[in-house]
Amino acid sequence: MKSTRVIRRIALASLVGTSIEWYDFFLYGTAAALVFPTVFFPADMPAAVALLASFSTFAVGFVARPLGGPLAR
């Protein structure tokens, strides 16, 4: 019985952590599309270039996060 409770607790903790992580990526992706191009880039920059630069920062974080986990150990 003890091992079943431990496995359920681990599964729940994993679900919560993963949900928070993906929610974070969802919020950042939404902000990258809607907010970042107008707030963080000059007004004279073409909108398509600002959007591409904004999504590039999102892509770097998306790729670096899983690579950084094993390398940090």
Can you walk me through this structure?
This protein is mainly α and 73 residues long. The protein has one domain (2-71). It contains three helices and no strands. The chain has helices at 2-34, 36-39, 47-71. α1 (2-34) runs antiparallel to α3 (47-71). The longest helix has 33 residues, at 2-34. It starts with a helix and ends with a helix.
Quaternary structure state of the chains depicted: single chain
**From the alpha-carbon coordinates, what is the Rg to the nearest angstrom?**
18 Å
Shape: elongated
β-sheet strand percentage: under 5%
Tally of DSSP helical segments: 3
Low-confidence stretches: none
Write the element-wise H/E pattern from the N-terminal end onward: HHH
Average pLDDT works out at 89
**Main pleated sheet:** none
| Separation, N- and C-terminal Cα atoms | 33 Å
How many domains, as an integer? 1
Number of strands: 0
What can be said about this structure in brief?
The chain is an all-alpha fold.
Task: Compile the SSE list and pairings.
Layout: H1 2-34, H2 36-39, H3 47-71
Helix pairs in contact: 1-3
What are its keywords?
0% strand, 85% helix, 3 helices, 73 residues, mainly alpha, single chain, elongated
